[in-house]
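Subject: Interface between my chains keeps coming out wrong

I've been trying for a while to get a sensible model of this assembly. When I model each chain on its own everything looks fine, but I need the whole thing in one frame so I can look at the contacts. Pasting all components below, labels as-is. Any help appreciated, I'm running out of ideas.
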Amino acid sequence: MPPAHPFDDDKLHEECGIFGVLGVQDAANFVALGLHALQHRGQEAGGIVSHDPEQGFNSARRFGYVRDNFTSTDIMETLPGPLAIGHVRYSTAGSKGQTAIRDVQPFFGEFSMGGAAIAHNGNITNANALRRELIERGSIFQSSSDSECIIHLMARSLQRDIPARMEDALRRVEGAFSVVAMTRTKLIGVRDALGVRPLVLGRIGPEENSGWVLSSETCALDIIGAEFVREIEPGEMVVISQETGVESRRPFRQKKPRFCIFEQVYFSRPDSILGGRSVYETRRQIGVELAREAPVEADLVCPVPDSGTPAAIGFAHESGIPYGMGIIRNQYMGRTFIEPTEQIRNMGVRLKLNVNRALIRGKRVILVDDSVVRGTTSRKIKEMILDAGAAEVHFRIASPPTAWPCFYGVDTPQREKLLAATMSEDEMRDFLGVDSLKFISLDGLYRAAGEAGGRNNSCPQYCDACFSGEYPVEPADMIEKGFKLKTAAE
Amino acid sequence: MPPAHPFDDDKLHEECGIFGVLGVQDAANFVALGLHALQHRGQEAGGIVSHDPEQGFNSARRFGYVRDNFTSTDIMETLPGPLAIGHVRYSTAGSKGQTAIRDVQPFFGEFSMGGAAIAHNGNITNANALRRELIERGSIFQSSSDSECIIHLMARSLQRDIPARMEDALRRVEGAFSVVAMTRTKLIGVRDALGVRPLVLGRIGPEENSGWVLSSETCALDIIGAEFVREIEPGEMVVISQETGVESRRPFRQKKPRFCIFEQVYFSRPDSILGGRSVYETRRQIGVELAREAPVEADLVCPVPDSGTPAAIGFAHESGIPYGMGIIRNQYMGRTFIEPTEQIRNMGVRLKLNVNRALIRGKRVILVDDSVVRGTTSRKIKEMILDAGAAEVHFRIASPPTAWPCFYGVDTPQREKLLAATMSEDEMRDFLGVDSLKFISLDGLYRAAGEAGGRNNSCPQYCDACFSGEYPVEPADMIEKGFKLKTAAE
Amino acid sequence: MPPAHPFDDDKLHEECGIFGVLGVQDAANFVALGLHALQHRGQEAGGIVSHDPEQGFNSARRFGYVRDNFTSTDIMETLPGPLAIGHVRYSTAGSKGQTAIRDVQPFFGEFSMGGAAIAHNGNITNANALRRELIERGSIFQSSSDSECIIHLMARSLQRDIPARMEDALRRVEGAFSVVAMTRTKLIGVRDALGVRPLVLGRIGPEENSGWVLSSETCALDIIGAEFVREIEPGEMVVISQETGVESRRPFRQKKPRFCIFEQVYFSRPDSILGGRSVYETRRQIGVELAREAPVEADLVCPVPDSGTPAAIGFAHESGIPYGMGIIRNQYMGRTFIEPTEQIRNMGVRLKLNVNRALIRGKRVILVDDSVVRGTTSRKIKEMILDAGAAEVHFRIASPPTAWPCFYGVDTPQREKLLAATMSEDEMRDFLGVDSLKFISLDGLYRAAGEAGGRNNSCPQYCDACFSGEYPVEPADMIEKGFKLKTAAE
Amino acid sequence: MPPAHPFDDDKLHEECGIFGVLGVQDAANFVALGLHALQHRGQEAGGIVSHDPEQGFNSARRFGYVRDNFTSTDIMETLPGPLAIGHVRYSTAGSKGQTAIRDVQPFFGEFSMGGAAIAHNGNITNANALRRELIERGSIFQSSSDSECIIHLMARSLQRDIPARMEDALRRVEGAFSVVAMTRTKLIGVRDALGVRPLVLGRIGPEENSGWVLSSETCALDIIGAEFVREIEPGEMVVISQETGVESRRPFRQKKPRFCIFEQVYFSRPDSILGGRSVYETRRQIGVELAREAPVEADLVCPVPDSGTPAAIGFAHESGIPYGMGIIRNQYMGRTFIEPTEQIRNMGVRLKLNVNRALIRGKRVILVDDSVVRGTTSRKIKEMILDAGAAEVHFRIASPPTAWPCFYGVDTPQREKLLAATMSEDEMRDFLGVDSLKFISLDGLYRAAGEAGGRNNSCPQYCDACFSGEYPVEPADMIEKGFKLKTAAE
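Reply #2:
Try treating it as a single job with all components included. I did that and got this:
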């Protein structure tokens, strides 16, 4: 496995997408399609587990894209049956930089009452302590993944059926998670009490004979022609079988929801519906808010492709400044590319992006991007734009400064690598060398996301820890490793 | 090799991209980057030949993307030296549907005065006759490619040096072609007398020690930081060496240039400069012309991604109707995908495109696309848009009706498969089932391409055979196979 | 993974070879060499685990030959450190006929006091019961291998150090086993109380700085230049560290040893020393005994290559009949071969063996083979010999009739597939269609193996269950599945 | 492609095996089997070309063993039809040490009257001159193989049918060659006028509907159940079609045959019949002659496996000294193995061979080997035998000293690397450090090969240039490169 491309590392990355289907023939085919639609949530590896009444559980786990691994008849024929779940993941490996295939989900466990497979999106913040305890009691871990704790907790539960064992297990788990799981006959979906990560329910097929779908996002319902039913609620567990339909349980103490606001800004696909709102519309509205909060005289509004596009459209519309494609993305950019010589390594971001010189030359350009993480890519883009003869370069960022790492299932650099953790907005502007730099305000972001009154600071409507440093669940493992929470002074 | 994706077959496809570099260390690395930037001109296979004074000629030819094949140090170290050329190709194989690796260019020939390699973009319209003649005289063909004729003609030339042999060879060849070739010390570029296919010259590196670049498009100069010098002129051959620089020859009888107008509409990348004009600007201007020629009351202008985007921006700007992303492209779509069941096969284009339902619902939508070939994809897109609740669907097409196949290096279906060959505009509208359908006029297209007076019908400024049926070079091989030219009556 | 070749299935197959090294730089390299020398004990897959003080535990597991998998620097560099163990295995999978990579040993477990890896040769006869019990208590099994029970039993032991936990675990295990295991600093070897499977101890390197080796056979000491020290004794556990050397423990109740006599006949390599005796010499002596027990007038003694060769040499020497290579083995036979048409399928064993016609023609031929299992190959060889013009064909078999399956780590067909389970010697002769057929007597075999007085029937010196049906350890799992032990009447 | 194993390089290597079949369904399957039986003649790569009336010519060429490449239905189904030829080759590449796939035969050429494919065993001694001439006239070579000259000479012939063109071509060619070729309907076999390399004719299938086979050796007839008909005679060309059967032509001036005597000593398989004599019997007889020419008192005769075995059997029989397997070969040795550290590299030949210590200890051992080339392996074997405690080591070599390179299709080191080119027999004995060393005399070898009167020095019955330095065809290309023929003084 080659390392992820260096020019992609200047983004936050969602770590996982999950998908499950019950009640259609060859369910694994639908899962493959769903995972393909969720590929933006994890490009490193994917896995599918299926169950067939005659052939039992089967699984396949592979590194690489869904389209390359789960497309051949050879593979798909090994995954028969009307029930299947799947998972795509992004590498979050540390110094070694590489995931082993045994870390690729779904995880499977054989219990005395039968097998179960689970796929997990999120992060368990007390995984280290749980793991120590389980090993002490004689569990053998096969992966380095935190998610494996869940299956061991289930194995040790004294409950008689698997959904009840999963309730037992998830009550021991802290953090943010959405889970899709399966037994021989049931499809199960769970969201943590805060509902940080998304999970939706859909139906597929003709009414008289329809099946059920669980998915991280609605865009993956569309690809298989499934109908959106509703979101799984924060703190809800749904246990679905062909016979009894959807049974809703509430295993956790109720809390006020804190959905991840960065899903709105960047992670989710623009054609998904989150919390009843179009992601595309929220992003376009962020552009509108930005144009109001931070207007500037200019000749052209350009998105940094592709994630800045909806906000740029909103900014251009609100400001009346023409919209244009000043930066062209290479469609054939994969995860890797040649960098054999110093000479070539320096050309960096050009492998992925090229400036539309004829359009840029002589113009005052507003560049709209979704976020600034390390700032490395932003600097290179600015240089390309100036090299192409722009008269002025103004950055407008569709999120507040990202000053804190996320511990809830998002791959973020250490805090000291985040530009906004060490610099003020003005310092960042000087560091990037642009004529102006403005981030949307936290209130503006909340307004764009539909909270007309802005952020409720005493009880925020979203998890915005990456901007605010206010962590709704204590990141116990990270504190053990030395992470310092925000102090009163900050 | 998997077959190309069925949902891509509703486009015309450029068949090749060519690139060459002389005078920089490890030239093959630059060629790999250049080919990566030209990948849109051919995704099936690629090849590079390099020459090093000590290690002689070396070559590597592979199926698949440049980024997957020419990125490892393992491969690139086998291609040393300061001189290299490369080629990317799109499959145009017939019934067998598959190219052999021996058909992948560049082709290499060893002559008594040394070796030469050539890479060819275009099509030789008298290849069948040439091939028969050469075999009769004792040449052994190794590939099924028409381009191999050139190397055999060179081998039989009585000239003493390789560039002169190439002149001899190309004077026997009819059709449309741009060629990049190399000897042990020289980089050679040629365009046919009409200049149908593009080829540009660039410089790379510091002035005191700069190297030379030949490329199908300027966007591939940008990726390696090369400076655009000029286009190779129609009918020109340039012979470049480190010692003597660029020598210009004129091997062919002079003709009036007929550059391919479809390069402006679709083939070339929007960030390239063709004939002194920005491709992006031409396309945006097509949208402006379309809005003038075929206005319609509507709520939203949506591009069919990604090729319809610049024209949609121009249409929105000119018409004042808001621009929005009504269709979202899956970024992880490769050349292949699973279609194991009838059930899934029917979902078709959804694998690649999804409708942004929240944006579309209830709106009168103008869809801007670059062209209509068979019409199969257009129908599916229309259905998706209506399923999402659009009130009206209006198609605006950024090219005239494509009614004739191209025989100059473009992969087109047989004439009877072209929707516009058998239907009028109104029939097509009914076939597609949309509220209105309008193509830009041929004159409008010429105006957008900078010809203020429109098309000079007595002596057209471009090759527009795919729209007009007027072929500037007789397609001899195809006529032999039964193709009927346009009659006076048509 | 292709299935094993059909023409190899007429042999019993040893299931595993194990090897471990402590105290030399890059121990994994030595393990790879040792496994290569033990490849005859298992060709399907191999694995190595190593430990390095700085880089911790690392492992690699692959299908196929050692020489193809553990030869590249790429792989071997991922297995650093002075301590490593390895395993080769033969597939014993049931109806699915295929092993998953997760079934490939060594198995690894992380305990609270650190990790351990184990490699196991043999078979656990109470594995089903153990597995049920462990799952009931919350263990998650990752493989379908019986050997995984050991690591889970270790995980649940209350002992404070790993060797003591292994003692605990192995006391729960019934069956025949030799085990090589490792912790971060210790190399561990164990043989079951009967000592059914072999295990030897060696030293490597200069005396002042020597390391330790554990191996299934002595031939694997030779390949790395290690010196044979002694056999691990039946019922012995050795715990070896660099600091304290070899510590010997006795975890099991003492029993009279019953070493597997088939190791002498076929499994072990002829250049190994087992129980102080040369395997080659034992086999040659079997030929001598056979010549005495079952003489016949003939012109030529031919081995069935390669396993019949030493006995054929002994038979020829004792009988005075010339020895010759009447059957030639194809050296390039792998595990698989083409059988696309009925026509070709019928040629069967010819792919592997060919008759030396010029030598055979007109002669009375004695064929010496090691064993008869199903008899299918023997019939084909007889036909080839007769086709080549032999006057007479006499089979002499270097083992008694194989009438019972082995449950101690050997892959044997079900009892009803064993020719000798359903036919008398005369019936087998007629079935094979040869002029005579004689097996060595059980007493003759014991004499050849050094027991001058033959078999001690009240207390046999070896495990010979495959010949006698007397199982020294009750095959509990198989009895549960319906296997019938020998009755008093048989 | 990994380099050949260093411990194999102390042998001469036959460069090629050829095989062809006409008149059976799916002829390519039979060719694959035949090539498998000829694998000892070339292990680096193999290729098959087939012709089917409907699907025309098809080909597949691969690096590696036949069993690994031409076994899957996937490949074999691409090679339909009743006519096919194939080729296996040993790498003879020079400094680069690697063959390109385009050098793998059969070669194919399309002529005006249809296509033809040829496979060639041997060496063209005037290839350089031919190649220069053909390039000068405009032929494009695609490989670095000398054999490609034949197809270009055919392309330029003025004859009207392909067999006649092949006659034209082969009359221009000097050297030693056997050729198998095919047109759309004909199978063709040719041997050069001296008949240096072997080629035999066989029939396959029932008499009323039989097909034809051409093969380098008879052992490959056996594997497909074909009947040996006769050898193709030196200087003969056979043109075979289903309609007309075998037509024999004599394209070359007649000469006295000089079959390669090393085929008898080492190259051919022992179960083949060459010139009416069993190869096994000739080799056994060499052992008998050696025992008479160079007797020595000893306790054991051991073959160096596997090529020394027949001569060792003959030596033991004639001398009355017991025969035994003192050296055991690892059956799983492939072409490559790990040599990551100096430490391991030194163990050398142990990877492939191990001494049977128990047998050797204290004995006076006669080692019988087929030849001594560089002497490197012989030294290592001697050391292993002495380390194992042998009292004396006597080498007996089943061929005369190899003092000259072969230029007729055999891979030999440069002359100065041949031990016998620079040392006398006594010097070699001292170099190897053995108690005695004796080679069979040239006369003894001829007697064993059936020439009762020994070698006819005025007109030798065989080509024995590697021993005698008397080259029956002038090695023109090598003389051009500086090779010195034997002088009168030598």
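Reply #3:
Confirming on my end. Residues 131 and 149 of chain A are 6 Å apart (CA to CA).
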